[in-house]
Design brief:
By secondary structure, the chain is mainly α. Helix content is 59%, strand content 0%.
Amino acid sequence: MSEVALEKPESWLWHLLSFVLPSVALAGNVLGEWWVLSGVVLAFGIYPILDWLLGEDHHQREVRTNGTPFEVLLVLHSFLVLPLVVTVIWRGMEDGNAWTTWAAALSTGGAVGMSGIVVGHEMGHKKHKSARWYLGRMALYMSLYPHFTTEHNHNHHRLVGMAEDGASAPQGRGLWTQVAITIPQQFMSAWRTQAKLSKSVLHNSILHGLLIQFALITAIFHFAGMWGLGAFLFQATLAIFLLEYVNYIRHYGLERSEGERQTEMHSWQSKKRLSRWVLIELTLHPAHHLKASTPFWQLQPYENAPELPTGYFGLFWPSLIPPLWRRWMDPRIPV
């Protein structure tokens, strides 16, 4: 039997769509008034619909050999995070405790959750203390979640699907419960990990991260006042929530017993085009787990991996309603 001929990879230009949301949010922060809602409407209104309408890619494609455009894309996204955060703080200073401040923070949190945490995740897998690794750290500081790199790289990849992994949600657990459990659990796990790697408490990088975050918050309050700081904290909170939402949907119910080998069956994947393009292939998660060193632009879908019913944008609203989520997802969990 002859092998199926593989098609050429998609054009990298599709991934330029990933700049639409942060650009729209940035413009909304600057323009103010009703424009501050632009990012909210796009991320939480239009994108979930487009996730369905644009369908998914079923083609079998060759592995990319040239990743230069994608690596440049990552760097550009990391540079977008700072102006996003600066402009939302400015909006808080200008508008004070007004609906426009909080709407701008919602738009910014959605954009930072993508340009910041998603890119921070990818760059966290780069060479330790390289230039791109530091760019990823900067992006994570803008959402007050720098310990994510330690927890994700040292523990989540090793323990995925097991009870010890704070980022993996067992079947039946709702998103709100998961978020309340996973955030402190992952922080403490990262602290313990760095404590084992450090000569003393003073050398613990998680402590260093806390001190930097405290200094950052203090500086924002000093220069931007209460509402500037409030806008910053609000966008960071939403960005963190979106990260843990993503962790939730891509591991929900896929449990692994002690000693069981990790396979593509322990992560959900989605081939929906919009989520893949906008979230820089984050949806091909089984491939990332089975070889974390593979850059995102070389990830390939697994034929037998469990498939989400739609993309990451389309799953957001159902995940907020646990009974609906369980009715939709539980029958899809492999037995």
